[in-house]
Amino acid sequence: MEFAIFCTKVNILIIIIALCSPCKFIQSPIDFGPPNMLQAKNTLSLDFGRIIFDSPSAVLRPQSPEDISLLLTSLFASSFSKVTVAARGAGHSIRGQAQALDGIVIEMDSIPSNIYIHKRGHDEEGFSYADVSGGAMWIELLEESLKFGLSPRSWTDYLYLSIGGTLSNGGISGQTFKHGPQISNVLQLDVVTGKGDLITCSPTKSSELFYAVLGGLGQFGIITRARILLQEAPQKVKWVRAFYDDFDAFTMDQELLISMPDLVDYLEGFIIPNEPSLLSSSIAFPAHLDSMPPFLSEGGSSKVYYCIEFAVYDFQVRDTNVEQVVEKITSQMSYKAPFIYSVEVSYFDFLNRVSMEEISLRSRGLWEVPHPWLNMFVPKSGIKEFKCLLMDNIAVNEFEGPILIYPLLRDKWHTNTSIVLPQASTCSEEDEQVFYIVGVLQSTNPASCSAQCLDGILRRNRRIVEAASTEKIGAKQYLPHHPSLMHWHNHFGRHWNRFVAHKNLFDPLGILAPGQGIFSRIHASTL
Ligand SMILES: Cc1cc2nc3c(=O)[nH]c(=O)nc-3n(C[C@H](O)[C@H](O)[C@H](O)COP(=O)(O)OP(=O)(O)OC[C@H]3O[C@@H](n4cnc5c(N)ncnc54)[C@H](O)[C@@H]3O)c2cc1C
Ligand SMILES: *[C@@H]1O[C@H](CO)[C@@H](O)[C@H](O)[C@H]1NC(C)=O
């Protein structure tokens, strides 16, 4: 242990000495230290998107937050260094956000996950919570907390993402309408700022840093530990899918369901552009496929269908009957009868459902392919127009991958975090509460979609963003990617000045998360 830390420090110093000189860059990280500290760099220029491939000059595998602090303190102290630093969680970004061209990538998973569960006793005040390293994955936290009968409240659909990575963005899924995004379920953070300071922050301590970092796209600091709120975990989950062929009925039912948080624990929904899309979205849902809506295969029509997916948690308490709760909910819905299906699965399998899709896609060679994904927050007032815009722009018959669409409630989001939501519309107050997340999660098989075809999809996505960003629809990108500073400025709107002020405060030299493409590195020759 001692030796490992000593080794790391030596390595960091070597990197710093090498990188602080303005013209001398490390050519090969292999030259510096043992391979477990400074790894081969090629995997670090890859991410889930497979669109951007920027190589770093060096890789750091820290053993502790102090190692990260040492690196950033040294870089901050050198006015000549042009070196940038990107924390890499699980590398599941789409557009190189966790890459650092000619800089240093920090592999956050090299710090042990160190999960500590604090279970509140019945007579104790406060909440149960978990302390966990920023580089740990959500699946690890789930497994550990379940040993105590506990679980985080708010999730992402996929659990092989890092805690620090999703907290730097938002973290949304079907529980968000009820508990808010993951960034609304954090009690405290340890953060290493771009100046190298290691700071513990919370809503009451260094609160400006705390809120800035949440949804902050990695611009203000590296999250080395998070304190995540926990609740009692259910035993089982009743998981229901209902089908629609009318968009208005679909969205009205979704909005009805999020108005019943006492009954509903999870709500999502998706657009079904074609039959293969239905089949692939059914992999994890263990209902008989032959009982799926037959209307979908009706004579080659290019009709689009919609599916609401909701869940009721089953704590297996004697006086609550989950069947009755589901019945109470579905009796108020107006799906296309009789196309409703329900299954009961364990809580773990429910949360981990996307990993079944991953296994299936991997087995068909369709996981490690380019993913030109587009995620947008759309005000309720513009959702229908956005849906039309989307369907006009995608090739419905060829589209591969899910198109998620479900409503969220504005008052579950703290306005002081850095995340950008659509501006409240001028409609009634009740309408302003609701906005939608739309995830166009397309994958492109290189066998049928060439580099040119991929480029076409990226340009189409850009057109959709531009058209949806006008006042008429008023949408904002989630997991944003923008081509210029002007676009970033527009993205943040009235919060741009606050975002820039936080940058000047916490990472004034622009060292952190260069792959987001927002700020430039500041060094002696730019001053
Ligand atoms: C299959 C799949 C499913 C997904 N499902 C959902 C979903 O349901 N809901 C949802 O909200 N999102 C979802 N996402 C998106 C996901 O939340 C983001 O891509 C997130 O950034 C991934 O986390 P990561 O650990 O891979 O981050 P990375 O790609 O490693 O990093 C993302 C950004 O955060 C920075 N960063 C990483 N770690 C830290 C840290 N510790 N401190 C500070 N900054 C850091 C990086 O430098 C980078 O800028 C999904 C992505 C995939 C690939
Ligand atoms: C949010 O930020 C404003 C402006 O900086 C501040 O006055 C307010 O106290 C903050 N709210 C919280 C909950 O920290």
From TrEMBL:
Its cofactor is FAD. Its EC number is 1.5.99.12. GO terms for molecular function: cytokinin dehydrogenase activity; FAD binding. It holds the Pfam family FAD_binding_4. Keywords: FAD, Flavoprotein, Oxidoreductase, Signal. The keyword Flavoprotein applies. Residues 1-22 form the signal peptide. Residues 52-233 form the FAD-binding PCMH-type domain. It comes from the Eukaryota. The keyword GTP-binding does not apply. GO terms for biological process: cytokinin metabolic process. InterPro entries: Cytok_DH_C_sf (IPR016170), Cytokinin_DH_FAD/cytokin-bd (IPR015345), FAD-bd_PCMH (IPR016166), FAD-bd_PCMH-like_sf (IPR036318), FAD-bd_PCMH_sub1 (IPR016167), FAD-bd_PCMH_sub2 (IPR016169), FAD-linked_Oxase-like_C (IPR016164), FAD-linked_Oxidoreductases_BP (IPR050432). Belongs to the oxygen-dependent FAD-linked oxidoreductase family. This is cytokinin dehydrogenase. It comes from Canna indica.
